[in-house]
Amino acid sequence: MEIGTLLRDYLAAGGRYARGGNLKQFPGVQWDYSNIGYALLGYLVGRIAGQDMRDLTRERLFRPLGLGHISWTISGTAAGLRATPYDLIEGAVTPVEPVGFPDWSTGMIRASVSDLTLLMAAAANGGAIRNARLLSETGMAEMLRMQKPPGLADWLTGQGLGWQQSLLDGVPRINHWGGDPGVFTMAYLDPARRTAIVILSNLSATRESRAALRAIATRMLA
């Protein structure tokens, strides 16, 4: 399914997946985390640029950094380089098929930890790394400027553009987490020290595993 088809069916009145008023507030009025919102952003980038965002990011982000192990699709990832996802099924760690979805800009990107770390390093370094500038310093600072909109979730201390902030061992840290069946990821930024860390796991998250990963992140940033 094309991402535009999904968005029309989900957001348009009378669409197949419409839930009756998905867009309930004007921007800036009420905080709400929305995966379909990130899907809409990816679609809008393509419409405004006149080029699919997947092609655009390959040209403007991945190639300038020399990233060779990164793809927006499962099929674009070499079979020999794919990690096997594992899920807990009836208490047993069990291999599962990787999850794919049409709203790819929400979180379909696949990358090696080294490639992903370079992108995060650019975010922690004012938008530039390896003599390549991916975003202006002003633009990067705006992405990381934390705000506290009405209704901000109680586990957060701020919301930026794509990035969030929450306490890690009592210290406010800019971060973003994500997960699907068989995968869980964490990324943390410390722009003051121009430091970034990425943690990838090929196991579905549990309360215990999240606590362990938070402990690893705390130690790495200490």
SSE layout:
Elements: H1 3-11, H2 35-49, H3 53-65, E1 70-71, E2 86-89, E3 92-95, E4 110-111, H4 113-124, E5 128-129, E6 132-133, H5 137-143, E7 158-159, E8 164-168, E9 171-180, E10 183-190, E11 195-201, H6 207-221
Antiparallel strand pairs: 1-4, 2-3, 5-6, 7-8, 8-9, 9-10, 10-11
Q: What does this molecule look like?
A:
Helices cover 32% and strands 22% of the residues. A 5-stranded antiparallel beta sheet has the order 7-8-9-10-11. It has a two-stranded antiparallel ribbon with strand order 1-4. It has a two-stranded antiparallel sheet with strand order 2-3. The chain has 6 helices and 11 strands.
- Please work out how many helical segments DSSP would assign: 6
Report the β-strand fraction as a percent range: 15-25%
Give the overall silhouette: globular
Could you give the count of β-strands?
11
**Biggest β-sheet description:** 5 strands, antiparallel
Tell me the span between the first and last alpha carbons.
44 Å
Proportion of helical residues: 25-40%
**Lateral strand order in the biggest sheet:** 7-8-9-10-11
- Pattern of helices and strands: HHHEEEEHEEHEEEEEH
| Average pLDDT reading | 92
Q: Enumerate the spans where pLDDT stays under 50 for 5 or more consecutive residues.
A: none
Radius of gyration: 18 Å
Give the structural class.
Answer: alpha+beta
